[in-house]
Amino acid sequence: MALALLKLLMAHILGDFFLQPNSWVIDKEKRRLKSGKLYLHIALHIALIFLMFCSLTIWKVALIIGFMHGIIDVTKLIFQKAQTKRIWFFVDQFLHIAVILICWQYIYHSSINIAFYLQSDQLWLFLLGALFLTSPAAIFIRVIIAKWIPSKASTSLQDAGKFIGILERLLIYLFVCTNHFEAVGFLLAAKSIFRFGDLKEAHDIKLTEYVLIGTLLSFGIALIVAMAVINI
């Protein structure tokens, strides 16, 4: 019955991301319960479930998911503020997926054996490596290159460098652990084109060297951690 779960998830993704125009989102946020687009959005999700299964026997699941989708969306519209929109987006999606999983498990008596995976040493080792490559690795790199921090004021986005570093380390980690070393070279080349092109225009040798040291440290740490994880 895993196919049923995939179809339910497909219906959700199509309904929430592909077939929901921005004008619907704006109208829902502005008019909330008075928005006709809200009820059209709910009806669309129900229709998509019928379409995915090409059967009317799925009507109970479709109506339950559609009803709960509406409850979750209404809750988000009522309680979200401008400053909490990002948080509510993730809460909203988490609850939608949770409802789909519960319905799938209840109707088809199926389950995902999470306990089996959580008992795997390799999984915990992989998660430990990934966790280290986020903030801990960023702190290590910042401490190492602290004495070379350029005095020139930065015009970049707040904490952008930190998050770029975290993402690049996690990508390298994933590439190496899945034996796709060629993708690491592609990532380094892509970053060089975008990053060092700007540095060249700045004509600041110290800044260029600072960024280069940070990048090589970031890549080096990610490679070492990944190699350690796959060889333990």
UniProtKB/TrEMBL annotation:
The chain crosses the membrane at residues 39-67, 87-108, 123-149, 170-190, 210-230. Keywords: Membrane, Transmembrane, Transmembrane helix. InterPro entries: Phage_phiKZ_Orf197 (IPR021737). It comes from the Bacteria. Coiled coil: none annotated. This is DUF3307 domain-containing protein. It comes from Pedobacter boryungensis.
